[in-house]
Structure formats: structure tokens, C-alpha cells
Amino acid sequence: MGSFLIRRFIFTPQFLFFSLLISLSFASETISLGNEKPTAYEVLEDFNFPIGLLPKGVVDYNLDSSSGKFSAFLNGSCSFSLEGSYQLKYKNTIKGYISKGKLSSLEGVSVKLWFMWVNIVEVSRRGDDLEFSVGIAGANFPIDNFEECPRCGCGLNCNDQQVRKMRKNPFVSSY
């Protein structure tokens, strides 16, 4: 008699309705996980750029996929030195246009050249190099220099870690 009651309980309308609700709940969780917004770093990779173009700490971003217009947001402004010779500053909002292998009309990123700060206005990928332009001049760097994200305040030399030398092209070209 006990097994008859168990079989009868399993096939009641209430049990089937409850089972359907549980199935739908799991299905909606799976669908929502698949629709999560990628990170700003993942978006860079989708456009064939390394994640190290942005410092750690991007809290959000906007991207218009039809025009390529983007904005990335940091918790505040950010500055650091790389290899002791390149000083970089990021405003709390970085804007521009992104396409495969090219960041253009950049706003919010600057580099110190000699005694003055100049805006980096474009970054282009050329094979295994990245070309940075400040308008009338530019410089190339190997892409593997940007495999990791620098941190605000300490760049790539944080927590007394080994200083990683940035490989560079010693020639700055002018356009």
C-alpha cells in the first residue's frame, strides 16, 4: 500500500505544477547567466586589444555597438608610472571609439612627455605591436607589455613585486 501512495503522489497535478515551476526557475537562472554583460576588459579582448590598456578598477562602461562609441568609468582619477619613465594619468571617465584593432578620438588618457602632459588620442594594433599617438607624434610598444592591468598609484610594481621592465621602441616617430 505504501508504494501505491508514493506513485499516486508523484503524479498529482500539484506535484507536476511544482516540478514545472522548479524547471522554469532553473531555466531562467541559466538564461540570465548567459546574458551577463561582459567586463570592459573582455570587450577590449573582443576588439583584439590586451586588457592592460585599462588600469584595474574599471567599475562600469557603456558601448554603442552600432557606432563603436564607448565610455569606461573608474572610481576616480588614476595615475602611475611604468618603468619609472612613463607617467600615465586616467581621468575617471575615458571616452572614444573602438573598432577592431583601433581606439580613436580618445579622451581621458594622458602621458607625460618631458615636462608636459599630452593626451593619447589613438591606439592602433599593428601585428604584435601597439602604436600610441598623441597627435603629431607616436610610439610603438610590443603588445605583451600590456598583458596585465596596471594598478592606480603603483602601476605594475605593486606590493614590492619584481619591477617589470617595459620593452619599448626607443624611437618616437612624428607624423
Automatic annotation (TrEMBL):
<keyword id="KW-0732">Signal</keyword>
<dbReference type="InterPro" id="IPR036758">
    <property type="entry name" value="At5g01610-like"/>
</dbReference>
<protein>
    <submittedName>
        <fullName>Uncharacterized protein LOC110415443</fullName>
    </submittedName>
</protein>
<dbReference type="Pfam" id="PF04398">
    <property type="entry name" value="DUF538"/>
</dbReference>
<dbReference type="InterPro" id="IPR007493">
    <property type="entry name" value="DUF538"/>
</dbReference>
<feature type="signal peptide">
    <location>
        <begin position="1"/>
        <end position="27"/>
    </location>
</feature>
